[in-house]
Amino acid sequence: MVKHKLMKKRLTIVAKELGVFTTQQMVDKLNNYPNNLGHRVAKSPKICTNRCHNFLSADKKIAVKVKHCKSKNTRTIWEYIGDEEE
């Protein structure tokens, strides 16, 4: 499977688990995601914060709860809304 499709699939699963999260929490969770045997291996796909932010903003099941504000020093907080639409 192509790396970006794998990451999008994992992103949805982790977002459903977390519910409300920041981008950094999602990156940490995705970079420590185990394979189907439950182990992390050297060739496990990694994701950076910018790419994670792009995947999150493109996903229709995930919405922005609090947007990043530099003057107030707040981070972007995301919320999984996939179950509410169904």
Report the uncertain regions.
none
Q: How many beta-strand elements?
A: 3
Q: Name the helicity range.
A: 40-55%
Q: Averaged pLDDT, please?
A: 82
Radius of gyration: 13 Å
> Structural class given helices, strands, pairing?
alpha+beta
Strand content: 5-15%
What summary fits the major beta sheet? 3 strands, antiparallel
- Distance between the ends: 27 Å
| Count of separate DSSP helical elements | 4
Shape call: globular
Helices and strands, in N-to-C order?
HEHHEEH
Question: Could you characterize what this model shows?
Answer:
This protein is α+β, with helices and mostly antiparallel strands and 86 residues long. Helices cover 45% and strands 14% of the residues. The protein has four helices and three strands, in the order αβααββα. The chain has helices spanning 3-18, 23-31, 49-58, 82-85, and strands at residues 20-22, 62-66, 77-80. Strands 1-3-2 form a three-stranded antiparallel sheet. It starts with a helix and ends with a helix. The mean pLDDT is 82.
